[in-house]
Amino acid sequence: MPVEFSGTDGGDTHGAAAKAAKAPPARVRTHRGYGGNRVLLASTSRTATLPAGGAPADRGDTRETRTGEPPPKVITTRHPWRWVAAAGIAVLLAMAASALITNPAWEWEVVGEYLFAPSVLRAVVFTLELTALGIVFGFLLGTVLALMRLSGNPLLNSVAWGYIALFRSVPLILQLLFWYNLALLYPRISFGVPFGPAFFDIGTMDLIGPVTAAALGLALHQAAYAAEIVRAGLLSVDHGQREAAAALGIPRARQLFRIILPQAMRSIVPTAGNEIIGLVKGTSVVYIMALPELFYQVQVIYNRNGRVIALLLVATIWYLVMTSVMSVAQHYIERYYGRGRG
Questions:
Q1: Using CA atoms, how far apart are residues 63 and 286, in angstroms rounded to an integer?
Q2: What is the per-residue DSSP string for 295-332?
Q3: Radius of gyration of the chain (CA)
C-alpha cells in the first residue's frame, strides 16, 4: 500500500530524492483511533495518514514506495498499563471470590435451604405483581401527562408540570404512608355529581386496602418519571414526520400511535427499562406497610431464626435474577425498535 506523506522537508526535489534513497528505512509507530491511523516516523518529523484499519505495509512486504524508498517498518503501540490494570482487577476479583467461598459466616448451606422456600417464592411473585401494577398504570398515566405537557393549552400544561414537580419532590416512602393512612383524612369516599348530591359512599379502608395503597403509591410516583421519559421520546422524533403525516391527511391519533410513538420508542425503551429495574428494587419500600414482598419476607424469617446474613443473601440473589432477566429482555426490545437504524 503506498503511503503519501503530508509534507516534504523542503529544498530541491532531486536532492531530497537522492537523500531519501540513501537514508535507512523509516520506522513508524501507529496509533489506532477514530477516522484512521496516524503513522509517526521515528527518524523524521513527517507524518502520514492511513485509512481506518489499514497499515503502511506488511512486515514481509519488500515493495518500494514511489520515491524509491523501501516500505516503512511498523512498530505497534504497546499499552503496558492496560495489562497492569487488568492484573490488578484480576487479583481483586480472586480475593473477593476467596472471601465469599472460604468464610463460613456467609452460611451458604442456609442460603440454599431458604432460596426456594415456598414463602420466599410467594414473596418473589408478589414483588413482580407490584412491579407490574406500578409500571403499567404509571406509564399509562405518564403518557397522558406527557401529552398534556406538550399541549398548547396552558391549563393542561401547568397541571401536568405541577403534578410532575410534586411527585418527583416527595420521597416514595412518604407517598406510600400517605395513601396507607388516607382514611385519617377522609373516613368515607362519596361518588356522585361534583359539588352536588352523592349517589353512594364507601369506607376508605374498604376501598383502599394495603395492597391497593401500595400499587397506587407506586403507580402515581412512577407516572411522574414516566411522563418525562415519554415526553423526551416524543420530542426526539423529527418534526418533519408530523408535518408529512398532516400533509397526507392522517388523523392526529393515528399519527401518534402509528408514526410518532414507534419512532419515539427508540429513545423511550432504554430509560424505561432502567425505571422498571429500579422499581423492582423500589418495591422493597412497601415493607413499612407489612406487605409480604421479598424484603419483608426475609426480614420475618431472619427475625425468627437469627440467620441475618444468609437471608439477606437470599433476597440479593432473587433481586439479581429478576433484574438480570429484565436487562436481557430490555436488550432485545431495544434491538427490535432500533432495527433499520444505520
A1: 74
A2: HHHHHHHHHHH--HHHHHHHHHHHHHHHHHHHHHHHHH
A3: 32
CB 127 within 8 A of CB 322: yes
Q: How many helices (H) and strands (E) are present in the chain, helices listed first?
A: 13, 6
At 288, give phi and psi (nearest 5°): -65, -15
Q: Which of 158, 164, 160, 149 has the alpha carbon at shortest distance from 222? A: 164
Distance CA 164, CA 142 (A): 9
* Integer CA distances (angstroms), 133 to 97, 129, 221, in order: 37, 6, 12
- 200-215 burial code (b ≥16 CB/10 A, e <16): eeeebeeebeebebbb
Walk me through the domains of the chain, giving residue ranges and CATH numbers: 13-76 (no CATH), 107-193+201-337 (1.10.3720.10)
Closest to 141 (Cα-Cα) out of 211, 216, 72: 216
CA atoms of 63 and 56, how far apart (whole Å): 11
Q: Strand pairing of 47-50 and 188-192?
A: unpaired
Please give the angle made by the CA atoms of 259, 262 and 267, to the nearest 5 degrees: 125
**pLDDT over threshold 60, residue 21:** no
Q: What is the pLDDT of residue 194?
A: 80
Quickly state the pLDDT bin for 260 (edges 50, 70, 90): confident
Average pLDDT score over residue span 9-27: 47
Cα dihedral 65, 67, 68, 69 in deg (nearest 10): -70
